[in-house]
Write a structure and sequence with these properties.
The chain has nine helices and 20 strands. It is α+β, with helices and mostly antiparallel strands. It folds into two domains: about 260 residues, Aminopeptidase; about 120 residues, Alpha-Beta Plaits. The strands form six sheets. It has a six-stranded mixed sheet with strand order 1-2-6-3-7-19, sandwiched between helices. Strands 13-15-9-16 form a four-stranded antiparallel sheet, covered by helices on one side. The longest helix has 24 residues. It starts with a helix and ends with a helix.
Length: about 375
């Protein structure tokens, strides 16, 4: 394998538009499935958990230990195409950079996972290494669908796992969690020419917004040495049905970023306490629901996968290797919390490039990432 193969595979994957929403993973899953078949590797398309949005897995070996390389095939929408220097699905290479939606998040992760599975698989078949290796091409990560979780439930699991998100090749042993809340604030409608006959839900919502803003300030005092600060951020607001009607309801969205030592039940109690106090002090009626959660995750610092990756990163790159975590959610949570795996988040690419116009990754970083991944996989499976 030469460096050109890495670049060309990333380009091929970037050129397959897999935007989510709506969830266009099909062609990419089929491409990866066909690629593994061409290399005579056992592979399967899995049409779960959502029909017509298949996932793809590959496996080599049947011994222990098993290493799982996980990536997601979906990307966020490209947005306004006019704001891209090159087409978002062109896979253009210019001045050592591969451009396109998903170049960082995370078609490069998929590419180096595929190549590592193939090359380490050959060593397994020759008997140079023991154990087995599994590749995940999961659907729906960008919208929180249970793609990875479904693959784990179907038995595609192992002792070790690497979620190949872009971390700049830093080894992340912790991730933040997320909880999204909708708070509905009640009022009484009336004609806007007689506003005192009604109760304005927007005015009631002002009290709620003020209280939640104060809560967000308080939450920032909570910190974790790996993933940083907790956040509670107001992200959406809607109210009203017509210009001349005093609104009867308003809706507020709260985005809560969760530290590894926080519990979702405690977050619920905190929100409930705030809203109960508003009811007592101002007579404001509210309802709330938690409609999406992503668990935080934490892998022990002394774990084998952590140690192996840190040593190989140190040997092959100049990337820092001190303890570190990601201030966002990744599918690593499913490997750790659902499958009880020894797992990390790790991959080439700068996360600040994800979801941007002119998203790119340096060719050399992709090559370096492949070298680290192959060497670490080889060591884990010896």
């Amino acid at each position: 394998m030469d460096n050109t193969e890495v670049t060309e595979l990333i380009q091929e994957l970037v050129r397959i538009e897999t935007e989510n929403p709506p969830g266009n993973e099909l062609k990419c899953a089929e491409y990866i499935h066909g690629w593994f078949k061409e290399h005579e590797i056992e592979t399967e398309l899995i049409d779960e958990p959502v029909e017509d949005r298949p996932q793809v897995v590959a496996r080599i070996g049947d011994g222990d230990p098993t290493l799982v390389l996980n990536g997601h095939t979906d990307v966020v929408p490209a947005g306004d195409r006019e704001k891209w220097t090159y087409g978002p699905y062109s896979g253009t290479v210019d001045n050592g950079k591969i451009y396109g939606r998903g170049a960082v998040d995370m078609k490069t992760g998929l590419a180096i996972g595929m190549l590592t599975t193939r090359d380490i698989g050959k060593e397994l078949e020759r008997g140079d290494s023991s154990g087995s290796i599994i590749f995940h091409g999961a659907m729906g990560e960008e919208t929180g669908d249970p793609g990875t979780k479904t693959l784990l439930e179907k038995g595609y699991t192992g002792e070790y796992g690497v979620v190949l998100e872009p971390t700049g090749m830093r080894v992340a042993t912790a991730t933040k969690g997320t909880a999204w809340y909708t708070i509905t604030v009640s009022g009484e409608p009336s004609h806007a020419s007689r506003p005192d006959q009604g109760t304005n839900a927007i005015e009631n919502a002002n009290h709620v917004i003020e209280a939640l803003t104060d809560y967000g300030t308080d939450v920032r005092s909570r910190e974790d040495e790996l993933v940083g600060t907790a956040f509670a951020t107001l992200t959406e607001f809607s109210a009203g049905t017509k210009e001349n009607i005093v609104p009867e309801r308003a809706e507020i969205t709260l985005d809560r970023r969760v530290l590894p030592d926080e519990r979702f039940e405690d977050l619920d109690e905190e929100l409930n306490s705030i809203l109960e106090q508003l009811a007592d002090e101002h007579g404001i009626e509210t309802e709330w629901k938690q409609y999406q959660i992503y668990e935080p995750s934490l892998t022990p610092e002394e774990s084998r996968v952590t140690d192996v990756f840190r040593r190989n990163v140190a040997e092959l790159t100049d990337v820092p290797t001190e303890p570190w975590g990601i201030p966002a959610a990744t599918d690593t949570r499913d490997l750790i919390n659902s499958a009880e795996m020894d797992a990390i988040t790790w991959g080439p690419g700068d996360i600040s490039q994800a979801h941007t116009f002119d998203e790119y990754i340096y060719e050399q970083e992709a090559v370096d990432g492949l070298h680290v991944l192959k060497q670490a996989a080889r060591e884990l499976l010896q």
